[in-house]
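Just curious. Protein, please.
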Amino acid sequence: MGGKRLRERDEVWLPSRMAPREGQRLVEVHVEGYDDVAFWRGIFDGFENERVIFEISVPPRPDLAKGKRVVMDMIPESGPGLLLCVDSDFDYLFGGGTHQSRRVLEAKYLFHTYAYATENYLCWAPALHNVCTKATKNDTRVFDFERFLGEYSRAVYPAFAWYVWSAQAGDEHIFRLVDFKNTVRLNYLEVQDNGRATLEWLRGNVQRRVHSLESHYPQRKGEVERFMRTVVCTHEVTPDNTYLFMHGHTLLDNVVMPMLNAVCDKLRQMAGNRIQASAQRGVAYANEVSNYRNALMSVRDTLVYNELYKGCPLYRRLHGDIASVLRREGLIG
């Protein structure tokens, strides 16, 4: 493990990694940024065996540059010993309709998330009740995340359609990201009635934005509808799962975190009320309150470290892509 070696590709000295066992091949996997390492590590862990191990890292460049463009610039160098992993963004939905989309979809040793980004997987609806349970130590089901995010997806789909179309057409000024964020974000969540009041407010917000777009660009409405028919038919996007394909940080920071915080506040309050209702007082009561508070976890940390998204169909497709390449290269059976 000691010593240093020079990588010819980047011409910087780096500590040597732990050597693979005899007969084992080490494959480098380069990802966009530090936040992505854990996600891709979780995938490649399942493929390690007596023939191959993987090292997940951001590109080792002297200028410390990282990001999707940096990883894609390494496509000519990629091969069985160097795999590349990126967020799909909209490149999957564009279906090769742009230069970057074609590069992403055609690269033999580059894998993309299918969902917009790794953050979208963290927000997979069937996993969110478990996140709340771990954070609050209260397993009471006070909120149906799958139903809410399905209704949320249907509510924002018209705005999503305009935003994706404008990005694909190269006319992003028609519907800027900041405007899309402001249209689909949740400023609050009313837990009662599974967020019905929040959804009603959101639908009104989306309707106003879409009406404005249609009024300013009436000739574009048909183009948006035709483009989205193609996307829905060929890329697994439906009004029910829009949230998996929308801008990842908007979803995580402005939709799912406000939702989780509201639900977890309710669950913590319920747990506190149960303790308050007990007959115990004095030292025993104080100890119970202290024990419960000490058991609580950060909602965001719990979300970031959950891996239940592995049940998501898009994730299973990504996993299958990687398995196919590794099998073709003789690295797995």
Observations:
- The beta strands are 4-6, 13-15, 25-30, 52-57, 82-86, 110-112.
- Residues 248-276 form the longest helix (29 residues).
